[in-house]
Amino acid sequence: MSDVRLIDIREEILSDNQELAGKIRRDLGRHGVFMLNLMSSPGAGKTSLILRTLSTLRDRVRIGVIEGDIASSVDAEKVSREGVPAVQLRTGGFCHLDAPMIERALKELDLTDLDCIIIENVGNLVCPAEFDTGSQRRAMILSVPEGDDKPLKYPLMFSVCDALVVNKVDYLGTSDFDLERLRERVCKLNPDIRIFPVSCKTGEGIAEWTGWLAEQVAGARPPA
Amino acid sequence: MHELAVTESILNVVLRHAGQNGVRRVLGIALRIGELSDLEDTWLQRYFDYLSKDTLAAGARLHIERVPVVFRCEPCRHDFPVNVREMDQVRCPQCGGERMTLVSGREYFIKNIEVI
Questions:
Q1: Does the distance separating the beta carbons of A159 and B106 come in below 8 Å?
Q2: DSSP 8-class letter at A202
Q3: Residue A99: its pLDDT value, please?
Q4: S-S: A57 plus which of A34, A61, A178, B21, CB 3.0-4.6 Å?
Q5: Residue B38 and residue A94: Cβ atoms within 8 Å?
Q6: Domains of chain A listed by start with CATH number
Q7: What is this structure's pTM?
Q8: What residue ranges of chain A have pLDDT lower than 50?
Q9: Could A9 and B23 be called an inter-chain contact, meaning their C-beta atoms sit closer than 8 Å?
């Protein structure tokens, strides 16, 4: 009869993913490439925001896109039509992208030819919040029709992001969505978050958002 | 939905330590998970039982300690626990301040394993 004993582990559960994410960040840093992890629920406007961002910044910033989708390649096709490098990751039902998937996708992109990579994560406000992809910054989109109560339901997502894009502001006034109430709720979870009200349809607010993104890209470039 | 990925990571870490320590069987696994995580205890155990079949950790029980969400008031530096469902009405109980930062609640940690 052997004794039951305890072995101390003291390890982060997602340590493998975190280690790989750290390695990805260091590789990107060496190439002076900035990577953004863009997350939202389905239909909030990730692809529309990416298309708007491409058309605004493409003359100044060389952008590549990694598209996470459960089954289709519709979004990657839309992005490719803009003439920018796009990699499609079909997650086959997986609810999020993690560092190993991003590492594979990065092999398809030429880092020496890019300044910025935007990851379009799987449409979901829960799981993607838990997994570091190796990006330097995380941004999320909340669209007006989803309601201003979402920070209460998905607190982790709102607390891990560096920027929040509030899309479809052209719908403000047709619903009881209150931008100030949202701002208060979000800032309680995450006082440092930057908030950008935009409409991908009308173009309102896009300049502020792309200005912030361009600053982040410039910050990742090695000093000349 | 990401319980499967998380459970797989737990199993990998546990089996690595079990291997290094010449363990015959893993009986229990103590975890610390922040209350901001959406993981469900029942599902974690169910996925774990499925993934750990035919390993040293088959049949091990997951003991999950939930770490409460704690905020720190920026103006007065007071730390206080917060109910996840009432996060929109949070005010510092000491000074009524409304600017705060998250101190705990995002943990994802394997503490130890019980083995023979």
A1: yes
A2: T
A3: 95
A4: A61
A5: no
A6: 15-220 (3.40.50.300)
A7: 0.88
A8: none
A9: no
Q: Which CATH class is domain B3-115?
A: alpha beta
Q: Taking CB atoms and an 8 Å limit, are B115 and A130 in contact across chains?
A: no
Contact A189 B106 (CB under 8 A): no
The one-letter amino acid at B37: S
Q: Counting beta carbons within 10 angstroms of the beta carbon of residue A13, is it exposed (0 to 12), middle (13 to 18) or buried (19 or more)?
A: buried
State what percent of residues in chain B have pLDDT above 70.
98
Of B91 and A146, the structure prediction assigns the larger pLDDT to: A146
Q: Model confidence at B1, in pLDDT bands (50, 70, 90)?
A: low
Q: What residues in A contact B85, CB-CB < 8 Å? A: 152
Q: How far is A181 from chain B (nearest CA, A)?
A: 9
Based on its alpha-carbon atoms, the radius of gyration of chain A, rounded to whole angstroms, reads 18
Query: Which one, of A43, A41, A52, A42, lies nearest residue A199 by Cα?
Result: A52
pLDDT at A3: 86
Q: Nearest CA of chain B to the CA of A98: how many Å? A: 10
Cα B75 to Cα B93: distance, rounded to the nearest angstrom: 12
Q: Which of A1, A9, A12 to mutate to test the interface with B (most CBs of B within 10 A)?
A: A9
